[in-house]
Amino acid sequence: MKTQILIFSNCRTAMSLIFLVGLLSCPIYAVSNDKHLFFNVSDLLQDTKQKPTIKLSGTVKDSFGALGGVIVTVGTKVVTTDLEGKYTTYITSGDKITFSMMGYKDQSIVYTGGSSLNITLSEDNNTLDEIVVNAGYYTVKDRERTGSIARVTAKDIEFQPVTNPLQAIQGRMAGVSITQNSGVPGGGFDIQIRGRNSLRKHANSPLYIIDGIVINNDSESENTMSNSILPGNNISPINFINPNNIESIEILKDADATAIYGSRGANGVVLITTKKGKSDNLSFTLSSSTAFSKVANKMKLLNTEQFNRIRDQAFINDEIKTFPSYEYDMNGTWDRYRYTDWQKELIGGTAISKNISFNVAGGNENTHFLVGVNYSEETTVFPTSNGYKRTSFNSSLSHNSKDHKFNITIGTNYTKQYNNLLYQDLTSQALTLAPNAPALYNSDGTLNWQNGTFENPLALSQKTYDYKSDNLLLNVAIGYQIFPNVSLKLNTGTNLTYFTENQLTPHTIHNPSKNYTSEISSARKGTSNKQFYIIEPQVNWNYEADQSNFNILIGTTFQQNKSNNLYIRGTNFPTNALMTNIGSAKNQYIDSNNQKDYRYTALFFRLNYIYDSKYIVNLTGRRDGSSRFGKNNQFGNFGAIAGAWLFSEENLFNSLSWLSFGKLRASYGTTGSDNIGDYQYLDTYSITKNIYDKIIGLTPTNLYNPNFGWEKTTKLESSIDISLFNNRINTSISWYRNRTSNQLVGIPLAGTTGFSSVQSNLNATVQNTGWEYTLQTNNIQKKDWTWSTSFNISFPKNKLISFPGLEGSTYANQYVIGESTSIRKVYQYEGLDPTTGIYKFKDFNQDSKYTALDDKQTIKDIAVKYYGGLQNSIAYKNFHLDFLFHFVKQTNLNYNYKLILPGALANQPIEVLDSWSIKNQNASYAPYSTGENSALYQNTLLVNDSDYAISDASFIRLKNISLSYNLAIPNSGIKSINIYFQGQNLLTITKYFGLDPEFTSFGYLPPLKTYAFGFQLTL
């Protein structure tokens, strides 16, 4: 066989003729005159027909060291680096390999050969193109986002000593107000996204979605059984989620972000995304922490000497010389000179929390998995060993086909909760029990009843409340790309909850002198079985032409909620040992037994258009159908339009070197609500407890209203986002206006109708407006030092702008047009009578008496004026310090709201020492009395309902502080070990008159101050 040698004038000519001579069967060599190219053409042609696939490995790092989580892309193959920055992929000569990570510049290389490739990425402050925000049905680059979406990631959530993820994001998001209802573990939260839209308080909860599955936003308890220990019997529906297992939380606020959820998005949407497996390499992670919590602040109460002085003066003022039998501290029954700090005794304990988690993650090029287990337990500050326990199991499995056309993700979260609590919160007794009250225990360790004169508060510890909850969350997301620009997706899943609560009241809570037996013991039990199913098929089409980019999303929703509730009660037990079995009670009752079925369907779409990478229009729409309405109003239409202009891309601004990014955006649209409960439009009947002639009958409970329809919220927003000086300074300013009309309420009826109200749409409109500011700065960015600051502040304003017929309705004493829906109509306090010292109030109708209808004319708004947070993150080498200050400007109820007559047998704050007398007529409080002065007693009750009980409740709180040290020991097999300290609610600056300015559920335990220590070990 002959060998042919072709000589060309240059490389370009040689390359252009290669394929022309490829038909020759002899070996061909080509060489150029400039000697830049010499190769065997036949071998080259053979290589183009079948190139070998090479296994490529390497390490990715930055100036600080190894980088985990870097995305490595080769064609359609995508892998990520592990915690040591290592990766493995498969590549062919001539392929382009790209390394990318948020906060770093992309780096692309054409692979030419070799089995190893190490890369060093350089930092890039311009991350807007790389930040991807979860908007629910779709994801969007932060740069191209037209809606208002607040985001917090695992960095700020994990390791915090909290039970519920809402605690971890408090103060971190503009427009999101979160209040913890109780310091008792397992309690609930009040969350308002851009204000209170509905006149019904319980109808202002947002929509919770975890990994695409809708979660019930009602309290798990639907009975008043827990009301004495948990305010409003509120048990958060997302208590079952372990905060350490959360990847990110997104809050959708405006019409553009929420309208695609239609009737479910009126109060905002909380999207929770859990962690998934990412790395190809097998890793094991062990996390453990221990936390210690105490009441953050104690009230300054009277000591025994001060208390006795007040009591003595009270009897002198009342001219009582012979002490009644019930005045135990005065008649010698008690030792009036003993002292007990009841705050220390009853709520001064240390709550201990323990948390341990173990995760396994790994996979290969196409499949990744994560499996984790978690156990946590938490006691209380009350003198009891009872507490809260949670055990959870979570897993995720994701798979991509080799051609990346098919993908599937399966997630599972199973949680068991057990909360064994006292029946009643002891905070009220800790604040009001006389300082010289008898000891809790006798010398033999039994409860002290002081010969029947002392209601021992620890007797309540024998009356218990507990709940058990089993929650299963299963989600499956399947995607398939049928054409290069068309893909299908199916999101489906279920949330199953089985909830049981028990209340046991043994006869031993009573004074033994009463000789009660288990015949008066009682027990209550409630069970709730809830099943939520959802199926959401979707199709997505993307089209690019010239400078235009179209994206169309169309989908539908099928949702069904089923619940079964049973509440039973038993009394008269043969022994207290059988109280957990109501079947052993002599008297048994079924308080309620009901089944509910809620069905919901929707069709939704989204059209997104981007022109020239700087003009963006987004259209969303949804048509909802709900089983909660009759045929006349069963379907509702909702939608939004939004636009954004990336003005920094215009040639006009190219010369402004200090402007890195600028965007104007605006949105307008409607969302709605059907959150009124099931079967409210129907004539309904319930089993009556009254028996006639041994027959149980029915009683009507609801009136038929076929015109009962959707509550509707119209949302308007405008915003500007700006980044300056190479993205060292990033800020956003937003203005919004939300108007909610067609209010779903019970319209009062005359008593002669047999019904107190009828469910209907009230022609009232509530408006929420406000400004939101966020600022993020990168103050220092050096090799060993980094320092960043985040600041947010919100100025909400709520107003009732329309309510036809308000003056003649039963709401006249509750609302005023033009005022906030959070107002209170109260008596106007005018000081103390200079001659008697009795509290005086303005007598508006001048009839010489105080009545609620005529004299409660003073309006006080107890809404928040502004709130926000200031966070700083500082890193030096392997040390990291993070702290967050949360601040609120507000007016709220103070301790006078629960003021007890000073001089009675109950403790008081030391402020009551400033008492009226002839020499002290400008005092804060009236003369002391035991209650014999009826005028003084009655007017003291009016203080509770006057503007004297409302004052400034503003505060600045060191909400969270975190100090951690991260160490890698590669030679030992330890990829990393993170040791950390966390603090929660450590410092509060306030002038508030009360136990806690954030928390105004009087008589309940406020949020606790917590110190936590822990570590995370990764192998």
**Residues in helices, as a percent range:** under 10%
Largest sheet composition: 22 strands, antiparallel, barrel
Ranges with pLDDT <50 over ≥5 residues?
1-49
Q: CATH superfamily assignment of the domain at 53-120?
A: Carboxypeptidase-like, regulatory domain
Tally of strands: 50
CATH hierarchy, class of the domain at 53-120: Mainly Beta
Class by alpha and beta content: mainly beta
Shape: globular
User: pLDDT average, as an integer?
Assistant: 87
Distance between the termini: 60 Å
Strand content: over 45%
CATH architecture assignment of the domain at 53-120: Sandwich
Q: Compute the CA-based radius of gyration.
A: 34 Å
List keywords for this structure.
1019 residues; mainly beta; Immunoglobulin-like; 22-stranded antiparallel barrel; five-stranded mixed β-sheet; 10 helices; 50 strands; 7% helix; disordered N terminus
Verbal overview:
The structure is a single chain. With 1019 residues, this protein is mainly β. Helices cover 7% and strands 48% of the residues. Among the domains are: 4-49, no CATH class; 53-120, Carboxypeptidase-like, regulatory domain (Immunoglobulin-like), CATH 2.60.40.1120. The model is unreliable at 1-49 (pLDDT under 50).
